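Suppose a colleague, Dr. K., hands you the sequence of a protein chain of 302 amino acids and asks what its three-dimensional shape might be. Before reaching for any lab equipment, you can write down a predicted structure in token form. Begin with the sequence itself:
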Amino acid sequence: MDRHQQMTVFAAVAREQGLAAAARRLGVSQATISRSLAALETRLGAQLLNRSTRGVSLTEVGRAFASECERLLRMADEADASANGLHVEPKGLLSLVMPLLFGDRLLMPIVLDYLKAWPGIEMSVTYQDRFPNLHEEGIDVAVLIGALPDAFMVAREVGAVRQIVCASPAYLARHTEPRTPADLAAHSVVVCSADNRMQEWRLRQNGLMRTVPLKPVLRCTTPRSAIEASVRGAGLVCCLHYQADEHLRAGQLVPVLEAFEPDPVPVHLVYREGRRASARVRSFVDFAVERMRQHPVLSTGG
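The predicted structure, expressed as tokens, is then:
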């Protein structure tokens, strides 16, 4: 069995999490699957699977190799399709990672429109605020809110979002609205412990960025929970504008200290392979960038 066949078998086992399911998917016997896996592990000199009476699971080496197998097999399929003149429409599975609130409120409607425009595409969407390692985790496209940490990342900037401080009208009715960053010392503060930016508030004063000392009355593990607490009158919250956009438009939250806001935070779509990216990656990035740049929260910073 050649390398391509071994990789196809291993990728099927990794996706299906079992030898029998992989055999059914590929239309071969389970014995064929077992022989292929044994030959692959021997050739690589590494254990790719943990085997037990309950089934199989990927080793750490196996997870990394499965990601590379998927990538290389996709590239091979695309090369075949291109040679055969079958590349008119993007096809296949596209993996996307995005922050929860950003996805719900900005990007998911674009994803659904893209799927309608390209019915040959399947998408796997993961919500997480942590930015992934695209190559190690086998991710095609991810949303990065913040400056690019690596100058060699392949990315398209789609806009920027404001970092704001806000509170509910009910809270501000009970407390004097802060007029300067120093006034925050007299206020109740809610922070999101999962976002380092929101645990240490930085505001611009006299042309300089200053860190504001905080004594939070409430720490929440997600931006959504911190914002909801502020809506209910718990205190002031610092967040990115899009995260609180619906509450701001409904009048449930009111921005304060707007004159002291830091510079808007850039937003990028980051993707693998650059100019060699697959047709489905290029088509999604082009589709999403055009629409995201038109969104009022991104095009004006809120």
